[in-house]
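On clarity, I found the account of how folds are encoded harder to follow than it need be. What matters is that the chain and its backbone geometry are given together, residue for residue. I therefore recommend that a typical entry be quoted early in the introduction. An entry of this sort, consisting of the sequence and the corresponding backbone structure tokens, reads as follows:
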Amino acid sequence: MSIVKSEFGKTQDKKTAFLYTLTNSSGMIVKVSDFGAVLVEVHVPDRNGVLGDVVLGYDNLAQYEVNRPSFGGLVGRHANRIANAVFTLNGVQYSLEANSGQNNLHSGRLGYQRRLWEGKVKEEENNVEFALHSPDMDQGFPGNLEVKVTYTLTEENELKLSYWAVSDADTILNLTNHSYFNLAGHASNDVLSHIVWIDADYFTEIDEKGIPTGKILPVEGTALDFRQKKMIGKEIDSKDRMVVLGNGYDHNWVLKTEGKKVLLVAGMEEEKSGRGMRVYTNFPGLQFYTGNFLDGTERGKEDVYYVRRSGACFETQYFPDSMHHENFLQAVLKGGEVFLGETIFEFYTF
């Protein structure tokens, strides 16, 4: 086990960002940065023991400052969509940036994935902790918020993301990691041949803007049924109304976690490499997104241009737009209460 800290570059306002390289005894390598608390690289072995980087991203800090697809970023204060870029909390209406049509997506252009966090190495635990102060009315949200995310690499080839936050006033909080995974390697074109399963019987219906309607519908008989292992590409371009509206998969699945225990909720495998990944979490929802809006113009690591659907996101979170739907578990953090969340990506070969 080792952690190496190195300079990643200078931000536009001349602040130094760092890269932290975590390595375990089996050779798995994880690289994270204090800029955006972003997951930059994840090198895991294939069935022949050959390491490959399985997350999409960039080689330099300047690109992460723009990072249109939010590659690897820690998204907050509210990940996903908020209808009409407005919400009401305790009788007060708050306005947000409308950066996705008339709606708010990932809290706007100044999301946490484009901020410099404070990094702290904990070598005895083989992890790196990133901390951020988000002041009252930051992005339009009330409350002075202190937030931390810890990346831990285990000897079992698990990457653990642990979330902690506290606010001095009631606020909205929905944090997620926005990594795009391609188990054949980040430069391996699309993920349509990857096999995925999601342990969910229901999903939240969306409208033509990707906003939940408030209806929770069964996956039974739809293209969103991943209760049994299924190739991503099998029904992604079907005439199912939900995948048509989502331009592919870009939906929230209702998990069985009940917000308490960390449970195995999803998985993905890639046959040629023999790499597999299991997803564990205690969050109530999973936004499974297949990079439908990548279009081959985004230049990533090693000068690779990422084509459409070249990565799959497993965004563990609260349901999108929950504050507008009373039947959804609300993403409200009460003042003085501690928010705790955990997501684990476990890698294996088969």
Q: What stands out?
A: The CA atoms of residues 277 and 299 lie 25 Å apart.
